[in-house]
């Protein structure tokens, strides 16, 4: 798959700045979420016919920028079919930087899927350092990966809700080194986007089921920044003192990924488009036709959501205060 051209230099948007994590040397991580790769499906608000080219563009951009690592925050595939994972693997094989991923709800076996989704163990073997949860060193930054999409007892197999197990939260308490810069990644966010974007859906599955416990465990462990996906929309919150980001979707409007640049002064997060203006217009048209969740997101473009960027800025505490206040 040939990537679309890359657009970083003139079209990335400052999303947020935080005081932490801070690093001794400059480190850049690319966060790519909700690609929903399908080698055969077309249409819908997820623009399945563009998913391979969007991931190819993200890979090409990461290579061009020389990032220190790539973090995929779940929903790599449309619905976890073997051929979808094969397409993802082929695209990621061109990546120069080390990469880690956590599973999304579309990457794990579901009771209603008409195909045999590979077991979670296969996902772990392919996209983690060998375990889940995991801690991976990317450029001197500890990236901690948690599983919010699947449970050993199968309790998450009948829908798209998320939960982080007590065992993982206990592991977090023992495994995070509070003296090292640490970014946690998991698919379902630990805050409700509708509290930041009132028109957004209030559906329970759009936030991890035990959000308060997860937010508290991250804070207690000394995690500096938490990153999630799932909602297909960029948003920022602060929970128990820890900044939380949700990444935009690579597949659907606004078809972007995040660059997280870490320096001795803290973290700067920018949103980078994966398509040109014509491709963005196509995604917006599909979103508006959908009329459901993505239609709501598209409507926020007219309401000036992107004009409120940055959503959080340590250099300007008055910027978008409702976006950074603790829940």
UniProtKB/TrEMBL annotation:
Molecular function GO labels: hydrolase activity; metal ion binding
Entry superkingdom: Archaea
Protein name according to UniProt: Metallophosphoesterase family protein
The enzyme's E.C. designation: 3.1.-.-
Keyword hit for S-adenosyl-L-methionine: no
Domain annotation Calcineurin-like phosphoesterase: ranges: 28-234
Enzyme class: hydrolase
Family assignment from sequence similarity: Belongs to the cyclic nucleotide phosphodiesterase class-III family.
Pfam families the UniProt entry points to: Metallophos (PF00149)
The entry's keywords: Hydrolase, Iron, Metal-binding
